[in-house]
Write a structure and sequence with these properties.
Chain lengths: 143, 143, 143, 143, 143, 143
């Protein structure tokens, strides 16, 4: 099993807020991340594809193609945007890192699986909200 | 001459916008950084103090004290905040990295100069807006 | 399966020494790491929790709570300390990175599992002794 | 299960080219990576060994020995070399990151398994071609 | 005085060789860097512009414009290229980091000075050949 | 003016303590850094040489020679050592970062100046005690 990973960056604003709950609940649970005037991050995203390398190219996936898919599916919709207000696929999603990696995985999956060699496929999405806070979605690692 | 530097982090939202100009001008000049729904960054700030070390302590400045001053003057006002709306000392400042380092230097100067040993004093403030975009204000380095 | 990771730092002194063996054996096996006058490191620790996100908060674990648990269980006992002499839970442990990650995992497990959402639980502890030497304990990853 | 990792660096030139295919095919597939005058990278390699720690030493593997094995098997043959022309074990290998990690794993396996404690053994080889492009070979992680 | 810096990357092959000297002299002086089959690096370049910020934009220089100038003058000619054979402005230059920063400065100067605000101008070019080997050209910093 | 920098690492234990002062004074001033059982760091040192490049080699200084001088003068005496007890040139020096950079500069100066081309000479020594605490000694930079 070979794993190839491509890293990229985007900058965005967000706020953690559950609209089904009271303002008090939100302030209590999310603290300064609930600031109604927003805050933001330099997000780093790492997308990993797992499988076998094509013997003719030596590629599990052409990283140039993976870069384009990440740009189209994640960076263009999210970069310099407000994650709560402006990203269609994040509508009704509380933009914690946990929820973001799951949403990004869903957005990327079809294009990545089509571009990868043979039965190689999207394996995981990792997101650094800060250098110290990291989330990863990797459904196949599971139990 | 000895230089000591302390590094810290904060996350904030902002938007580049000159309210004295038209929306067209702002979109033309600032592009996606002008997004009215804000975007944000994990800012890294480096504060440098220059001078001589106290022979009794070996310190140009106690970095614990410098850390507290940076927290009080920059991190507490700016962390998880909207730099355009919520930071009193940035009122009427377009929050480019250039303007931020100058404003932070002004905010820090008196406390840092008082805490530093002898004639040691605040030398520069550096800000990483992203890993690739960096600004520094260093008035004494001169021509 | 979602994985969330929190990173932290501590500085400590240590020495590699097996008191059940001769000084010659220890010098032969541990080389300069056996220096009786100690040496030290800026340790970086990464703690990963695995599971599902709480639909109300979007959190596998509140990273603020994880930060507090890491502070109480690992950083407060170890930071600016001598790992051989001053950390109760490391008594009789040769402080190699391998043994440290296992001991840290044991110290963290109950509090982390209680703070994590639903059946989410502590998944791994990773320790960077230097940028180039890394150890990880991950009991559930299995064979 | 404990995992220990050692990181190292080497600089090399290479070119992506499949000699069984036409020049047109190679330019189309590999783009600027096919440049006949070569390009190069500062490669970062991470080698991970998995198993149990020796109770007498606290080591899964002596990282000094792992460092020597990596030097002998990978760094000496590859550092400041042309990966297409000068590395015997890469003859007939298109030097993509995917193929390199697999070849390095094969080169390292016997020596690492012999040096590791008990049934501990080589677990994975990871290669950073750039900060943004990463490949890993980890045969036992399986599906 | 405000300093703004933009960082970028390129990958290239090169060899250190003085064609006016014998092969023996070159092997003696440059060692493995003289390998006739080339080696290569992931170069990191940092370009710094110094001056005053435009009060209307808050910019010393629009970093988007600086990015374009760096792409046109340095990255497009050098990325995935052989620095000895393929870069017109490096003809007859031994591609040490020292010589590269000086050549890059000359290439960048006119465009950067024109794009910078008022009397702001190109201040320095820094190049990381590896994480551990760095060169900088900064003519105005003087003695 | 061209500046070339070489980076290196060492691990050491130390304690901040002024033996001419009372234990109370030391605990008050140095806090946890005064721990009598020592603590330690992964120090990163950057040595910069400034001057002109030799036209025959393109080198301000052969970085291989600079690496050897740093090894002989700083790394061999300090790596895996206790900076208070075991380093002859640090006898009677309180090992703050400020004092260390000054002592390292003195140790390195003669050998570096002799190895550098023409009138090129040692320019600065920078030390990262942690990622966040940095000191630099640069006597020629100015006021």
């Amino acid at each position: 099993m070979i794993y190839v990973t491509r890293k990229a960056h985007f900058n965005a604003s967000h706020r953690l807020h559950n609209p089904n709950k009271s303002d008090e609940w939100n302030r209590e649970i999310f603290g300064k991340c609930n600031n109604p005037n927003w805050h933001g991050h330099n997000y780093v995203i790492e997308v990993t594809v797992a499988g076998e390398a094509d013997p003719e190219t030596g590629y599990v996936i052409d990283l140039g193609k993976l870069k384009s898919i990440m740009k189209k599916r994640v960076l263009d919709p999210c970069d310099h945007k407000n994650l709560n207000l402006e990203v269609p696929f994040l509508k009704n999603v509380i933009p914690t890192s946990e929820n973001l990696v799951k949403s990004f995985f869903t957005e990327l999956q079809e294009d990545v699986d089509n571009a990868a060699y043979g039965s190689s496929k999207l394996y995981s999405v990792r997101l650094f909200e800060t250098e110290r806070n990291i989330a990863e979605y990797c459904p196949s690692r599971g139990e």
